[in-house]
Automatic annotation (TrEMBL):
Transmembrane segments: none annotated. Its cofactor is Mg(2+). It comes from Nitratifractor salsuginis (strain DSM 16511 / JCM 12458 / E9I37-1). GO terms for molecular function: metal ion binding. This is Inositol monophosphatase. Pfam families: Inositol_P. Mg(2+) binds at E65, D80, L82, D83, D203. The keyword Magnesium applies.
Amino acid sequence: MNPFYTAAQQAARKAWDFLRTPPPPELFEKNTLIGAGGDRSSGLDLALERIFVDALGSFGRIDSEESGSIGEGEATIILDPLDGSSNALSRFPYYGVSIARLDGQGILREAFVANLANGDLYRLDEEGEALKGSLFESEWKRPIPSPHPEIGLFEKAYAQPEIVAALDRAGLKFRAPGAVALSLAYARNTNYFLFVGPFRIYDFAAGLALCKGMEIAVEEEYVLVSKDREVFDKIRDILKECGL
């Protein structure tokens, strides 16, 4: 495993330990500053940002969802230090970290997503294929997709009642767990991943890279991923019917 992934995994383990301290209550409060991603940052967001900046700063300039541009370097590291921060602040166990590293030409070289609630890790190998590991084990393997998934993942579904109703009529069940990068990392285990609305690079840079080999549509209005072409086409037809 290359030094960047080693540093990311070590930082993820440090973040895991920090979250189980537990952190002081004041870190669960949102501050008045708007982060680079457009949301108000919590003390928890910023505490985890410090952990990953300290670990990864030597590998390039960091573009963090919380603090924006940090440090210098030819490469750019796109960091969401707490993917699913509302879940973490609510102690709902579905949150993690998303990290993508682009070289000086803007080509993605490394992608790393960690579930800081259960220890699942995802990264790319040297050929750009997804691997799955754990904070508690040293072995990395190809992720094993669920053979007969019964649900999709529809992030921010609460803002799209018309599409929700159309998916229901089509019998396409879903969950909306609230952490985009994690949901992309788990896309192989589900029927589909769907996100509708404006999206930010912090949420998608690493997660989409982990979906190589699947059906992927990145449009101005939505992002759709599925390993099943029939399901993929059916949802695209639904989105068209809904005006997208």
